[in-house]
Amino acid sequence: MSETSVSAVQHHAPPTSFIRKHVFSLDHKVIGKQYYALALVAVFIGMVLSWLMRIHLVWPNVPIPGLSLLSKSGAPGGVMTPEYYLSLLTMHGTLMVFFVLTNAPFAAFGNYFLPIQIGAEDMAFPRFNMMSFWITFVAFCILIAAFFVPDGPPISGWTAYATLSAVGSDSGPGEGLGQTLWALSIFVFCIASLLGALNFIATTLDLRTKGMTLSRMPICTWAWFITSCIALLAFAVLMPACLLLILDRVAGTSFFIPAGLVISDHLQPHSGGSPLLWQHLFWFFGHPEVYIAILPAMGIVSHILINSMRRPLLSHKVIIYCMMGIGFLSYMVWGHHMFVSGMNPFSSLVFSFPTLMITIPATIMTLIWLGSIYGSKLRITAASLFALGFLSMFVSGGVSGFFLAQPSIDIYLHATYFVVGHFHMVMGVAAIFGVFAGTYFWFPKMTGHMMNDSLGRLHFWLTFIGTYCIFMPFHYLGLAGNVRRYSAFVDDFLVPLIPVHRFITFAALFTGAAQLIFLYNLIQSRFRGAPAPANPWECTSLEWTMPSPPPFDNFGGKHPVVYHDPYQYGVKSSTGDYLMQDSPEEAGA
Amino acid sequence: MATVVQPPELGHQDPPPEKQHSGGAGFGNFVPSGGTLKALDDSSQEATRTGIWVGLAAITMSFAAFTSALLVRQTTGTDWRHLTVPPIVFLNTVVLLASSVALEIARRRVAAFARKQRVDRAVPLRWLAATLALGLLFVAGQYAAWAKLRAEGLYLASNPNSSFFYVLTAVHALHVLGGLGGLLRVVAKLRAPVFCLRRSTMDATAYYWHFMGILWLYILFVMWIKL
Questions:
Q1: Quick one: CATH architecture of B47-226?
Q2: Model ipTM?
Q3: In B, which residues are within 8 Å of A125 by CB distance?
Q4: Smallest Cβ distance to A241: which of B29, B48, B65?
């Protein structure tokens, strides 16, 4: 290992007080863990909400013990009302998309590992970094507060379509204060995300250590960087949209509410607004958001697969170009969420082409991953299993995207469970598998303890089988015409589908319970796990050059010098079949 | 902004010193994969400068969103009315542009000071004070414009035109207030007994402030042709 003699100039002083160390910490590693913890809390709440919904769908008249404590009016006697079902649906979606899928793969792992992987001591703006986490936390609290206001959480879904979201309490329970809290929460979340994205971009461009050229950054660093560029532009659009929505709700403006709208026998005192405008602004953010969730997972999975295969991918650069391509195209396809919204059919056609084009970089990436794995001696660990699971989910969920990208097919499938199956697999589960893979891979570095790999593999197989059991039948339900967002199935054509729903509910309860293994492993390993060596996976990137867990200032006040491309595997060197990025040694053939 | 425990002396800031918080490989540093280090010179900018450009990109995007909302909204309803922009905003425009000129003079004086040319610290301070005063005057002027509209009975929710007028001007004014906060921070650093104003901080604040002027011209243009 070689280091320059640059004297130690600390980015900020080591923290001394408890509060500075663990609460309002400026250290990117602590902030990364805070994001991870917040995502864990959010995913737990989101999962319980999905359980409640699944149970209600199958046994609509059976009281759920304790539910009436959460909302007396929403679940009188423990049986939820159709409106309360929608409230839970909204909160499930919002928590999962914003506070889990954005926070965990991007903000949590990105914060922890991006500075280390480029050889920096911390993020470029540590104070902004701390603020971005705590602002996110405030957004989370505002959202959760919606559970406890008199009329409960909003019923307009995580997409909060106007006019339902804009007109106020006339449009249903939860559309009063609950919806305002929702809009405020997302507005605040945007501020935090913008600060975070700004930090990631400036850090990547300016704080790379000597020799760390852009082409030498690991793929996951690239993924976080590209994601932060996407996030910067996407959240900058959602924020004004939320502001306009809040004004429509509290100040009586008419950005999204048309004239002559009668809801609950009340003529709404608005005129001339456009409900489609909200959808355009929302989805201009919303589609890139899908890639904000999935790109970091792609990066993490590539990083882990390369390490497990002990050889580089067929092409490092093409993967990065494909991620850039996906990021670029993600801004041209928002209209494919609006094929049935009353938009001009010609626009649908225009949005359909770039949507289908996204399949090109996505397919190239998949082929590179599969082609690289083919014939390799893969080291099977919990991390590499979840990386493979990601590929499986990405392909299975992505293929249904081919269908939905075409307006003629989407018109039939749009309001059905087919779409629910598609986005849960390709965006939800795939990204979560990336997070699991990252957790098993980096946990030793983050805590200094190894995780239990056998439990990890058990967790993988149960989760892998369980998620397929949940989300694959959704596609069948959709094709059979099963409408989404219904809280109970009483129509003639839906009743025969109830056994499928029952199977899904059992699968969901089972898969959720399997996550307790993960939780146990996480907590048990944190306190009782075997001590982790500096580089347990024989990995080449910079985070593995330092002790586990890393010291406060990452590289001990020195700056590493990088001599190699990130993935020098399958070479002959003094360390074995790999060469660390900061090793001055020449790679043998 | 980056926090530095021991701020480097300004006098050593130009040309940029050894990288403070990292090694610094910029775009221009392409080391051959063979492993020999060829170009290790620090060619990257300080993160503050990059950061401000990135922040400005986000603000630009937000106002692009407002603009497209305005364009869409104009075509959807039958309630689009002409709104006469209160004349005082043109005066405000002059004030804001003048503040930019004052700040640019201050920025160059600080740069000269950093080069250890014989410049009294009081000179840039005076120009900064002028910038601050003009900035406050701009915000006050905008407030007067809102008062004028209110007097005409045009409130936020009166019609879409007044809605957009208030939203665009208020969001811009909030950003200007943020810029004033940044300027106060620069002034505090410039006045501090231990001189600790980094040029990147000065530059970033100035870029932001100039951008507020450009953004205002854009908003004025949009309001002029559309409202």
A1: Up-down Bundle (1.20)
A2: 0.92
A3: 1-2, 47, 51
A4: B65
